[in-house]
Specification:
About 35% of the residues lie in helices and about 30% in strands. The chain is α+β, with helices and mostly antiparallel strands and about 260 residues long. Helix 1 runs antiparallel to helix 2 and helix 5 runs parallel beside helix 6. The relative contact order is 0.14. Bound molecules: L-MYO-inositol-1-phosphate (LIP).
Length: about 260
């Protein structure tokens, strides 16, 4: 089994190059090429091109590894390592030209399902800001060379809490009701539009917490490792709503359980 740092170093190198490709394509102009689960669930040609770029680089460097990507699906491997990739997380932001999108790459071992895998390395890179968040299991979470730490306990003013909403309009009433239940412990809420950046911001102490239902493995695989390596807690996967959407809660230890309880169901 490879050393997690070797997986990390490969993920960082690929994320930087993939992010630059995404940035260049954004500057050239982005065309929406298809919709997926709902009209609002879009995919651009850049999503597909960037994922193909990442997949090819990983196959070249580590041909026996598995792969799970948002745009091209799953391919099993024999090495015990699976790469979980969102080529452009925050696709709607990307399409609108909002500089809040990220390349998210995680290397996991074991069962490649949320709550079951063992994340070994993760990278979340926002090419618009140049911020590269990264972590190796057991070696902390970092923004560049800066060590990250979650907010251990929210201030008396309340927690700054990020969340998100699904693409299916039928889920929105329940999502809004969930935010209303959480508001009594919040000083304010934020909606970035990219789960990987929400999680990176929790790790960096920019948010006290984040929660969202309906995320895909590639949305959170890397960001969840950042939060855990920054001293935070991530959970909720076993809590599934009537639409089959699992809950994800990421927070510092001082607010995690309270938020998880308020965000359920
Ligand atoms: C997005 C997430 C975001 C969520 C959106 C969507 P995508 O991922 O990052 O947090 O609210 O519904 O799932 O589609 O941009 O890769």
């Amino acid at each position: 089994m490879p050393h997690p740092r070797d997986l990390h170093d490969l993920a960082v190198a690929i994320a930087r190059d993939a992010g630059e490709l995404a940035r260049v394509r954004r500057a050239e102009g982005v065309a929406i090429t298809a919709t997926k689960s709902a009209l609002a669930d879009i995919v651009t040609e850049a999503d597909r091109e960037v994922e193909a770029f990442i997949r090819a680089r990983l196959a070249e460097e580590r041909p026996l590894d598995g792969f799970l990507g948002e745009e091209s699906g799953v391919e099993g491997g024999t090495s015990g390592v699976t790469w979980i990739v969102d080529p452009i997380d925050g696709t709607v932001n990307y399409a609108y030209g909002i500089p809040a999108y990220a390349v998210s790459i995680a290397a996991v071992t074991g069962d490649p399902r949320p709550g079951h895998w063992d994340a070994q390395a993760g990278v979340v890179f926002n090419p618009a800001s140049g911020e590269l968040f990264h972590a190796v299991r057991g070696e902390g979470a970092w923004l560049g060379d800066e060590r990250l730490a979650v907010v251990p306990e929210p201030s008396p003013a309340g927690a700054l809490i990020a969340t998100g909403f699904g693409y299916n309009p039928a889920t929105h009433p329940g999502d809004i009701a969930r935010v209303a239940r959480v508001m009594p412990i919040a000083r304010d809420v934020r909606r970035v539009g990219a789960a990987s950046l929400d999680l990176a911001f929790v790790a960096a102490g920019r948010f006290d917490a984040y929660f969202e239902r309906g995320l895909q493995p590639w949305d959170h695989a890397a960001g969840a490792l950042l939060v855990e390596e920054a001293g935070g807690l991530v959970g909720g996967y076993d809590n599934v709503d009537e639409f089959g959407r699992a809950l994800l809660v990421a927070a510092g230890p001082g607010v995690f359980e309270t938020l998880r309880d308020l965000a359920t169901p």
